[in-house]
Amino acid sequence: MKLKTGFFISLHLKKFILFMRLITYNVNGIRAAFTKDFLGWLKTADPDIISIQESKAGNDQIDIESLEKLGYHSYWHSAVRKGYSGVGIASKIKPNHVEYGCGIESYDNEGRIIRADFDGFSAISVYVPSASNIERLDFKMQFCHDFLEYIKNLKRKFPT
Prior knowledge:
alpha+beta, five-stranded mixed beta sheet, three-stranded antiparallel beta sheet, 5 helices, 28% helix, disordered N terminus
């Protein structure tokens, strides 16, 4: 499996520093990824939190039990349209709160955003719309504008 992006983050919480490994991965279909040893890769990569895009599956189609066996709490926001987009977050730390969507129906129906809130930080999995055809370009640009406003509102709600 090809890792798309990975990074480390240090969080300054109260009087100590916590180092975490965060990975974001566009799986282009979580069910297909499971057949290509996604779990073996996940065990080896061993992130504290993994953000998944383009799951293309409903919650009932995702092998949540196998993720739990590896020590992950997983949360999924699927599109209304079957086999389309969808995002997820799997974390070794149980979040305090999970927010499914951003409150804008056109994006939430496509399963574009999921957020997990922890002590002192939030992790967000975002699947930005493609503009591979010109008809979706305006939708993508509006999404980017609206997502920026969503982040600005979060910063006001949860200042650091």
